[in-house]
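Entries read chain and fold; for instance:
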Amino acid sequence: MPKWLRGLLIVLGVLATAMVGLASWDNLTARGSVADPMLKHDVRIVRDSWGVPHIYGKTDPDVAYGLAIAHAEDDFRNLEEVVAAVRGRGGAITGQDGARIDFAGALLGANATAARHYGELPLDTRLLLEAYARGINFYAAKHPGEQRIRGLFPVNGQDIVAGFMLRSPFFFGLDRPLGALVAGEPVPRDAGPADERGSNGFAVAGRRSADGVTRLIVNSHQPWEGGVSWWEVVVHSEQGWDFAGALFPGAPYPLLGHNKTLGWTNTVNRPDLIDTYKLVVNEAGTEYRLDGKWLPLESRRVWLRVKFGPFKLPIPRTVYRSVHGPVIKTDKGWFALRYAGIDDVRQVTQYYRLNKARTLDEWQRVMDMQAISGTNFVYADAAGHIGMFYNARFPDRAPGYDWKGILPGDTSKTLWTKYLPWRADPMTVDPAAGWVGNSNNTPFLSTAPADEQKREAFAPEMGIETFVTNRALRYQSLFAGLGDRPISRDDLLRIKFDKGYDKTGWAGTWYRQVMALDTSKAPDLEAAQKLIGQWDWTLDCNGPADTLVTLAFADAARSAYMNKPRQDAAPALRAAVDTLQARYGRLDVPLGDFQRLRHGKVDLPVCGGPETLRAIIGTPDGEGHRVANNGDGFIMLIEWARDGAVSSRSVHQFGAATIRTQSPHYADQSALFASERWKPVWFDSEALRSHTESSTNP
């Protein structure tokens, strides 16, 4: 054997041995958290005929324990991924995408924050969190075959808090400046989401409704799958916790919905709650200057566990921190980020307290905690109160600085440490018009114009958004069209499921650009332009132009929502025409043929579109279809009768068992969702009795 070949084989053997070692490195070095003390829980999980779990417990912790088990029964995969992200092992499951989240968690110090402040949480909150973690551990131990990586469990209450610390800042846009800095790009001046997460919320007071009923529409727009997808649950404890609604994986309680006397929904807002500072750092990268003094720059080495095929490779990274917050080193220098809610874990208590509030006054006192840093709350209750609260934890910033730009990081004058009180936020409570709404827009379009707050009443340093969505323009127009007459349930639902575009917004601008194109030398574009000229400004699956407009609109809608420069109309129209001609050989394709709701064997037409109130966001499937994967998802209609009795209906785009392909509830609600119908929420135990599918005591 030639020496070179023998040498090559030796090298290959060493590499193979190393790779085998790397393949097992993650499992060998990973350890679960120290489990909270074992306790026995008195809980019953009752599933109704739609598979929705109703959790009954003697105490609130009993309920949280059962809730975790029920959620794991329906969606252990996403729960596992959330836990992995918290523990810095997301990359070991999902590869580079998970590793990015792992890096963010290390950079933000989510686990360190949770460890530092966990003991400060009220005892009842800690008992709830620990019971929830215990439920996840119970399921994981009973189903080891479902675990994709070893050493992830057990988890504890502190891990659940860290999950909130990791995810919350991204709901008000931390991913935009963070992503820009990591990529070496300019930091955007405007706050806002990095994708098309949106939402609608509406409330109508009984004094304005046609039948005296107070109504609330829950309509959050989230991805249909993954760690921030909705899961429905109803909870009851003998300690007075009664709530019906939905939550994300990793939350020990519903995040929106209703109890017996009040309810709320959330919509993403985009106030300026994040500041970027340029630091003055010494050549060694070990100190930064503040008020003329040199302070140590904290640094810590982390190892990202990244899945590449069968291997999980250790990738080293260094994370930095200053008194401002996390620090990122780029080719342009050192930059620190500071955001609302940094180093504060109290939101886990605030959500719990909101679940159990009983009156508007009590609910507002809980909101005074101001621990939920961002997200609008649209509220209604049995007493007929309604409100739109532009909830944001506004930093108390000094005037005289460009707070949307890059701030000097070498002076404490720009280093805010306090917040304005929650009652200083824009809010519209019990307006004379009798209705409130929000669709991810400025809070100064929350009700009828005569009842709005004035923008001039709020300091510019607050950074309140000026953004207006097509959905906001539509609901303003539709409510105005009702005049002064009573608002019926049908009126409200027509607004919620509206599929139209407003000609005065970005859609009108896009339309005029398309119609102004010179298509004289391109017959196919000329035909498309003529067809769009006949469009009725709705995506209701009835017009011959609906599919062409949906295709050509998609990028413009995304850019408009993210407040980015829009693509020129010409290439967008060309791409839409080419797609339809290649797949269908025609332009007037029915929208129901083109736009589909798919889950397992279910394949249904679904109407609506990007940035309509009936929001349907989707991606191409490579075969000429647009497959919905975001937008309208879990929707709820909540009603309080004149006597205060509550009832509700809901629908989910798939079903209760979101990942269990063999379950009858994997996609049993999809047909209801696509046809804009509802299922009942059996909130009352007596009503549930005749609609029970199973009952277990884990």
